[in-house]
Amino acid sequence: IKLEKLAEELLDLLCENLGLEKGYLKKVFYGSKSPTFGTKVSNYPPCPKPDLIKGLRAHTDAGGIILLFQDDKVSGLQLLKDGEWVDVPPVKHSIVVNLGDQLEVITNGKYKSVEHRVISQTDGEGRMSIASFYN
Q1: Number of domains composing the chain
Q2: Is residue 42 situated within a structural domain?
């Protein structure tokens, strides 16, 4: 419930930035019923031959706001910026906030849904992440 509240607080900050009434984006997600909120735990074990697997292919997220708790020691998350894949380094005690396709459409493109992927690690520890989706 606290993560859902955090997502709604972030929506209010987006409203403020867009010059919209506080709570507007939350109302859009509520529509005739409440938004959905779900969490996914992912494990990416190391692979000595990463060219044989894809990790998590490049994609955008269909939803609204995604709150990602990534492993604080093992990297692997990358985003596409200006045609180049850029590492998103893990930062201890932090949350990566990603905006999905729904928010790109609702904001008429003022906020973008960023293409991202997870690359495989060749050795060491596996990578774990927890993603919570507010749609």
Answers
A1: 1
A2: yes
Tens-place pLDDT, residues 38-83: 999 988 887 777 677 666 789 999 989 999 998 888 888 999 999 9
> What average pLDDT does the chain have?
89
d(CA 126, CA 135): 29
Task: Give me the active site residues, please.
Answer: 40, 59, 61, 116
Flag whether the pTM goes above 0.85: yes
Q: Which CATH number covers residue 87?
A: 2.60.120.330
SS3 track for the chain? CHHHHHHHHHHHHHHHHHCCCCCHHHHHHHCCCCCCEEEEEEEECCCCCHHHCCCEEEECCCCCEEEEEECCCCCCEEEEECCEEEECCCCCCCCEEEECHHHHHHCCCCCCCCCEEECCCCCCCCEEEEEEEEC
CA distance 40 to 130: 6
Q: What distance in Å separates the CA atoms of residue 123 and residue 110, rounded to the nearest whole number?
A: 39
Which residues constitute the domain of residue 64?
A: 35-134
Residue 122 included in any domain:
yes
